[in-house]
Amino acid sequence: MRVTKMGKENQSFLPELEPDGPQPGPSWARKGWPLDLGGTDDLTASMDPTRMKAEIKAAAEKKGAKLDEKAVEAACDDSVRAMLLIRTYRVRGHLAADLDPLGLSKLELPADLTPEYHGFGPDDLDRPVYIGGNLGVEWATINEIVAILRANYCGKVGLEYMHIADIEERRFLQDRMEGKDASIDFTILGKKAILQAVIRGEQYEKFLGKKYVGTKRFGLDGGESMIPALESVIKYGGSSGVKEIVFGMAHRGRLNVLANVMGKPYKVIFHEFSGGSANPDDVGGSGDVKYHLGTSTDREFDGTKVHMSLVPNPSHLEAVDPVVLGKVRAQQRFQDDIGVGKHQTVLPVLIHGDAAFAGQGIVWECFGFSGIRGYNTGGCIHFVINNQIGFTTSPQFARSSPYPSDVAKGVQAPILHVNGDDPEAVTFCCKLAIEYRQRFGRDIVIDMWCYRRFGHNEGDEPSFTQPLMYQKIRKHPGVASLYAKRLEEEGVIDGGFAQETIDSFTKYLEGEFEAGKTYKANEADWFGGRWAGLNKPADPETARRNIATGIEGKLFDGLARTLTTVPEDVTIHKTLNRVLDGRRDMFENGSGFDWATAESLAFGSLLAEGFSVRLSGQDSGRGTFSQRHAVWVDQNTEDKYIPLCHVPHGHFEVYDSPLSEYGVLGFEYGYALADPKSLVLWEAQFGDFANGAQIMIDQFIAAGEAKWLRANGLVLLLPHGYEGQGPEHSSARLERFLQLCAGDNIQVCNITEPANYFHVLRRQMLRSFRKPLIIMTPKSLLRHPMAKSTKEEFLGESHFRRIVSDTNPPADEDIKRLVLCSGKVAYDLIEARDAAGQTDTSIVRIEQLYPFPGEPLALRLSRMKNLEKVVWCQEEPKNNGSWFFVESQIEQALSEAGAPVSRARYAGRAPAASPATGLASRHVEQQNALVADALGLSVEDVIAARQK
């Protein structure tokens, strides 16, 4: 193998999927399929018998020999079999590579890698065979061919790449792996730098082990070759156009990467080991264990500066992967680096454990993003720390595939397997990876085989479960000592170089250790860069006071034209024409505005004010319920027209996402993490499906700010409402979000009016802080005749209302029964009450459930002097929905109001294991019963009232 100069060419993977690329033909047609492989590989063309015979004749004559037809036939037969032998090594040579530092994975040489398998006997091995320039030679004996192939494909690096369809990519990799003189070559300075990096990694772990005996650190011991390898990603990435690298990784080696790659001061880490905080005392938050924390920094190699960030993550392995990709996508957009031939300046690097890489489905979800419009980041470098064990689980019990990296073949990513005891080989793989990624814009995987010297964590005893492996490990020399000995034998360093490096670095660590005792953070890494000007609200209640979010009439009218004008060259669906006719009527009459139109007005007004809007989810372009129509599809050409893309100043994008919740929600969280100036929304097809992304909700959305001081303004749109559609199409599990609410961490709303939805979206961007916003969006209310708004509700000083009274309220002094609720059930209650002629019952909607609007509710209650009953009504079963959250909040508001009633009572469905019935008739019975209970009517009264 040889290291060659990086190519300057760039080719984007699947360019037709890029935002700026052409999208011809029907949307369901698979572009570029079936694949034009141009033959199975480069050998195919040269194996044509007629062509080969002519080449053999010419080559022989060139050497002064003439061959008769029989000799040509024999030589041609030799060549074909030799070519097949070469191809077999390209496909399967990695199976015989020297990858395991411990020597425990002893694999027999596959039979098809032997000359005998291809028909060459003992007498044939030294006969010259024509191979036409393959392997860099024209004629070679079988022994010479095998020697070259074993050196190229069966050394410390094994390459899997023949599953790649693209010929240029395969040739690129072959060119860097194959050849008679191919080798991994570093300069003397380069070798010394690699050794010094390995020593830093090794001694840092030893220092921590000595100073903090028995403390968990999830050390890199046994995998120290990763340190110089990651530095090569920074160095060679910077020289090929990378300005920023976003890293994501789990626990193992994280503290080492923070210190020796990211440049986090050692004294700060020592301070954290001693129980100190990395942030000032007045910042607040829960904090997190040190091996979950992130950082950001700049490093410079050869005069090129690269900004790096390591995203904080929880213990949920691989959960950080989509967050990194989303953040990278946002950064690429800032730098105008999205599109065909781009994706050059921001690089994602994900560092995985072998067991998690094979076992966690989120890994595949992220690979699935690699070629998709709206999610592609131009290739990610995946580095697998292959410990050959997962906690106590051996590989044969952890996966069904030979390698942990096999999942990557699904997107045709090349895979470099490498022996972790060879730092040069690992560094070479990273250099090759960055060159490949920058040229082809594709994912690539480095699978570094190593070992875990001290078990899962430093307090664990690994010999309980893997005694033979750990007998080997105890006797096995460290990476630094092996590499230092090798460099001494090569004459690169003298006998004292390694020890001098160790002594010097250890002395430095001692100084940092002493400095860590008195270290005190004076600044929180929080509101910098694009977050400048934003802040943490000083007082949650004051911060939640409503700000004016209405817009001017001129902007309103301009958006009306944009949202209802069909270009002459666009032929839209006849039903969409009727939808647009309805919207024109709304704008002309100034009334009847529905949910989807209010949403478009919110998006358009934010765009006009310079914000960006990104909406993604399953079927979000049209809308699951055919309500949104943000994308108009030409019925003749399937070209797409997006009206909001024509609003000046801002940037609008809407994507129908992959059928993923976990990965896509994580991606959008990462995008919002990087860009507070964009309204980023993720929409579930049905709110119930958000439970497929519960890890992202629990670990990032609800707790990210408290744990890591990372604010986020992501909006979740979760269709919710009981319409008899069954247990998976009713409940967005409102109760789960409310259980997560604490410390002013998120916002949870169940909104019933289009204008209020408009205002809450605008409020999300116009305030000086960002909090995740969870909205229980409606289904039936999308077209409900009572769920309409007027033009005036969008204009001027109008704003979001946390509490909304019913449409026909009695006078305050006449109210004896107050029904509090949220969401769709309010309209069922209003209709039944009005039909029954009740004049002493008021129905008040709590539009924002958290932070709970206790102050305005108490003010409203204080005016109801003759109140006799307070009821909380919900559609959800009693053990679901809002009841257990709001009960104490309502009680406190009643107390503060001095109300004659001290507590509310519950009216709703009985506790249930399933969130909803699947029987329409039973649904109606339950709905009538809960409405009757809330209003103090009989079920017969409710049915009769509805029939009126």
Automatic annotation (TrEMBL):
Enzyme class: oxidoreductase
Entry's EC annotation: 1.2.4.2
Region annotation Disordered: where it falls in the sequence: 1-46
GO biological process: glycolytic process; tricarboxylic acid cycle
Spans through the membrane: none
MF terms in GO: oxoglutarate dehydrogenase (succinyl-transferring) activity; thiamine pyrophosphate binding
GO cellular component: cytosol; oxoglutarate dehydrogenase complex
Cofactor dependence: thiamine diphosphate
Record SUPFAM superfamilies: Thiamin diphosphate-binding fold (THDP-binding)
Recorded superkingdom: Bacteria
Transketolase-like pyrimidine-binding domain location: 593-784
InterPro entries xrefs: 2oxoglutarate_DH_E1 (IPR011603), DH_E1 (IPR001017), KGD_C_sf (IPR042179), ODO-1/KGD_C (IPR031717), THDP-binding (IPR029061), Transketolase-like_Pyr-bd (IPR005475)
Keywords from the UniProt entry: Glycolysis, Oxidoreductase, Thiamine pyrophosphate
Complex formation: Homodimer. Part of the 2-oxoglutarate dehydrogenase (OGDH) complex composed of E1 (2-oxoglutarate dehydrogenase), E2 (dihydrolipoamide succinyltransferase) and E3 (dihydrolipoamide dehydrogenase); the complex contains multiple copies of the three enzymatic components (E1, E2 and E3).
Record function comment: E1 component of the 2-oxoglutarate dehydrogenase (OGDH) complex which catalyzes the decarboxylation of 2-oxoglutarate, the first step in the conversion of 2-oxoglutarate to succinyl-CoA and CO(2).
Protein name: 2-oxoglutarate dehydrogenase E1 component
Organism of derivation: Croceicoccus pelagius
Lineage, broadest ranks: Bacteria, Pseudomonadati, Pseudomonadota, Alphaproteobacteria, Sphingomonadales
